[in-house]
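Chapter summary example: a protein plus thymidine-5'-diphosphate.
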Amino acid sequence: MHKMNKIQIIEFPQHGDERGHLVIIEGSRDIPFEIKRAFYIFGSDPDVVRGQHANRESEFVLINVAGKSKVKVKDGEGNEAIYCLDRPHTGIYLPSMVWKDMYDFTPDSVLLVLASTYYVPNEYIREYDKFVMEIQKKNC
Ligand code: TYD
């Protein structure tokens, strides 16, 4: 399947009541992988671009649990898509080997990221040209 078609918008179960909202995310149930790592990004200025990498192994789910940001995803073959992250009960699933840029952070943005792997620096590709070369190699 084409990489861009693997991207999914996922609605999480909500259990809100008069006391407030509660959103539940269970690994392998509500998202397509077992969660090995979680990290969150906040306090990024609106003109900052984060990410700017692809991952050879890791899959991610991105959720703006507060505020807003955007993520631009590229497949290295000329296709790209932009997703607005602005709902605490909606996640975006990103497969491995897609390039991602996160930007347009609002001051209140808290971007939660769930990952399928522990942190391994050398599975990150941080140069776009290198990413494109690896994609081309895979297609041979
Ligand atoms: P970086 O990958 O640049 O963050 P982002 O892609 O969200 O913009 O990571 C910033 C620093 O944090 C970098 O020194 C690596 C470190 N880091 C970890 O040690 N573990 C992790 O899981 C992540 C995501 C980053």
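Key point: The first strand starts at residue 8 and ends at 11.
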